[in-house]
Design goal:
homodimer, 488 residues, alpha/beta, FAD/NAD(P)-binding domain, 3 domains, eight-stranded mixed sheet, flavoprotein (chains A, B), FAD-dep_OxRdtase_2_FAD-bd (chains A, B), FAD (chains A, B)
Chain lengths: 488, 488
């Protein structure tokens, strides 16, 4: 779409805008809000700043966290319940996850699966059964740590990562389906158009001001506005103020997650919540890590290497001194499927652990003590420290290799010019909303006419994060927001 | 002061209020703002919610972080510079400390020492030369980690914890002096009076609304208002929204740190910053820890045990799985001065490490490996992992003892009815202010007539905290706010 064409479209759109609902942002939250509002009878206009729909969602892995007994789970031989799903997420997204949001999300999850399928999203009934960021296959189901310690002690394990059929990044397929579904229900869209502020009359949000090629226009919405503008990882000033842990790292975004929706809502009195919360990702190389050990700069293990790499990344980046190394032996390295290595080769190799720890700058005896304790227990099929599953336990034998898991590929890291910290992330904090997406003010009362969903809001997350829960809460609470606004 | 008497005083005060500046809160930030405003020629009224001045400051240890060559430092034989002080604080309060505030704070620190002394605060010229939370002596100077790794590698070590002459808690002496100084310069005070909101006219803060025994009155301030209302550790809803890590723990406060100033400023458009940041304290028993080793639930060391206990607490509570244990031997335990033990006795004792680790619920061999590596290096006067100073390095010999450092005394923990997590803390995030205490709005421009200081603001702190920097930034930026408002 050329700028001129989109400019004309905006002019056309601006001339005859007459809608119930304006949705700002056409990622997954905006798409689902728009579809639901339209299906509830509202006329809907979606305003997207980029040249095409999709947002950061389209660049993602495309996993959606779904459970409670979906047809895909059943086809793969797993029983699941909303209660097990809740128990797992409350642990994995916690401590301090939002239990109210989590409860409705889990209770409605099987229904949400059907809704997504009904709107064109495909999930194939096969499981990718090994630790990974994103399967190199078209399998529709994956584990996100449910079968690993300590999560296997708080809920009956069932895989709940549902994904469209694409190797690695499946977000494009997901968004193609939802954008097509939105078009099918008659939603109007204007692109290349930036919303600069909210229109407020007598304390009620009644539309938005847009800027396009320097021209400012007002778009009125009879019922109100849904902000689905994304997070703020692309706004350095907001990061410094609220989520400094992400400063200097790579950004998992489409480059437009600048917090604009959060800021324009704050100006009209909206409250925020958990603005420090964030996802972080390291390469980790999960298939390799599971076959070896992961250690911090002191040569200490700190987590079971077979859990979800997002959980490993958070444990490493937030809590452990780096660099972080996977130490493996030859047999372990050779056992990794090529597609799961992302072309990474060991950066260090040595015949003895004394040599390797010296090469890695660790104190004498540190890595040796760790491997010796690991091997002693692995021989008996045990990992008393971190409970890695027996499937992945095997004593490490010389020669040894080490891989810097902050080097190489980063899931979703868009910005190759970013400082080479080996870490990339996005923000999880944002506007304070009710379970129906009402934006709440500093006093706790809804801001009339204003709804929000997705990463512009503080979602279900506490201190933890699991892939699929951002697309998950964006889509599910986007639907709730769209419907609630249409019904208002 | 009886309620009736203070009620009458409020009535009297309300009848004839005619001031330039209203300061809300009479902790250290409010005291210093009031004094400075008065000394710059303004008439000042301080409104305090409690029955007497002092706030949380009066319940604290009373350390103020000062350096750059104070007379007390010089008398104790230490040269110091503002640059070394800056380098240390930037590391200890970081990452992501506020370098602009830190720079003026360090540059003016020797002058700030003189100002405090000129206003009646006494600091005796002697050093308490061992790791401690609060010296059991009247020494005026203490270390806050400056001489421990890694801080000794980023700045020339000099002790900078300055404290009034009281064993342990010296905050009362500190506040007695500053309250007296405030009275000396003619500041009026009303107590038992809650400020409910800010008075705004034409976008400018022109006073406050107060509530006293159900009656609401307006107090006008010709120049403006300084909010020195403290943090929000006593507000569970704000903790859940912004600093959930403190939920369920003890509170270091006077019970009135409910974020009222932050909230009333937000309502008139103020921005906040770093609302998640917080201090946390564990018992630690620093004198004991320095003589032994500190390990996490896996029996792993994670920090040099001779650094400041606040730094140890943060490392443990935020980053390491608990419980956290100090493991010592008999010689180490017997070497601790009784006054530094706070009556704590070992909870576990054993002849062998195998026995002890079993008693502590650690996997076989875990603690043994840690102690073996520690002893091997300690024999050579080295700690290659965490660089504990040679002074405290000595191999541990049977019999061994372990102390749960989350049990027992907690510095400043007011609330003995709190859940027995063994952790207590307070909040460090708050209003976004300029170096002169102007409260900044969501757009970054000052809110006319509104200033703030102390824990109602986001101070100099990044992710770290060192004792003395809260009283330090409260007093220093309180002064700047009072002067800037008086001069406005």
């Amino acid at each position: 779409m050329s700028p001129a064409a989109s400019g004309d479209q905006v002019q056309d759109a601006l001339v005859d805008v007459d809608v119930d609902v304006v949705v700002v942002g056409f990622g997954i939250a905006g798409a689902c809000a728009a579809i639901s509002a339209a299906e509830a009878g509202a006329s809907v206009l979606v305003v997207e700043r980029a040249g095409a729909p999709g947002g950061s969602s389209a660049l993602s892995g495309g996993e959606i966290y779904l459970g409670g007994g979906t047809p895909v789970q059943q086809a793969c031989g797993f029983d699941d319940t909303a209660d097990d799903m809740f128990a797992f997420l409350n642990a994995a997204l916690g401590p301090h996850a939002d239990e109210e949001k989590l409860r409705v999300y889990c209770n409605d999850s099987a229904e949400h699966f059907r809704w997504l399928v009904d709107h064109g999203v495909e999930f194939r009934p096969s499981l990718y059964d090994a630790p990974t960021w994103m399967p190199p296959t078209t399998d529709g189901l994956m584990w996100l740590g449910e079968n690993s310690w300590p999560f296997d002690t708080v809920a009956r394990p069932a895989p709940r990562g549902h994904r469209p059929p694409a190797p690695h990044f499946a977000g494009k397929l997901l968004m193609d389906a939802l954008v097509a579904a939105a078009e099918d229900v008659g939603i109007r869209t204007i692109v290349d158009t930036r919303v600069s502020s909210l229109l407020v009359e007598s304390g009620r949000v009644v539309g938005v001001r847009v800027r396009h090629y320097g021209e400012e226009r007002e778009l009125r919405a009879r019922k109100g506005v849904v902000l689905a503008t994304g997070g703020f990882v692309d706004n350095e000033e907001m990061l410094a103020a609220h989520a400094p842990a992400l400063l200097g790292h790579g950004k998992v975004s489409d480059g437009l997650d600048d917090g604009s929706g959060i800021r324009m809502a704050q100006v009209v009195g909206a409250a925020t919540r958990r603005m420090h919360a964030h996802e972080v990702a390291l390469t980790v190389l999960p298939a390799l890590a599971a076959r070896g050990i992961l250690v911090n700069a002191h040569g200490q293990r700190f987590i079971n290497e077979d859990t979800y790499p997002g959980t490993i990344s958070h444990a490493a980046v937030v809590h452990q001194p780096g660099p972080w190394w996977v130490v493996v032996d030859e047999a372990g390295f050779d056992d990794v499927p090529a597609a799961d290595l992302w072309g990474v080769r060991p950066t260090h190799a040595a015949e003895t652990l004394a040599e390797l720890e010296a090469d890695l700058g660790m104190p004498p005896g540190s890595l040796e003590a760790t491997v010796s304790a690991y091997n002693r227990c692995a021989e008996q099929g045990e990992d008393p420290l971190f409970h890695k599953a027996a499937r992945w336990l095997r004593p490490l034998r010389p020669p040894y290799a080490a891989v810097d898991v902050a080097a190489g590929f980063h899931p979703g890291d868009r910005d190759s010019a970013a400082p080479a910290t080996g870490v990339a992330g996005f923000t999880l904090g944002g506007l304070h909303t009710s379970v129906d997406g009402e934006v709440l003010s500093l006093t706790g009362a809804p801001v009339p006419g204003l709804f929000a969903a997705g990463r512009a809001t503080a979602g279900m997350h506490g201190d933890g994060y699991i892939s699929g829960t951002s697309l998950g809460d964006g889509s599910y609470f986007g639907r709730r927001a769209g419907r609630a606004l249409a019904d208002s």
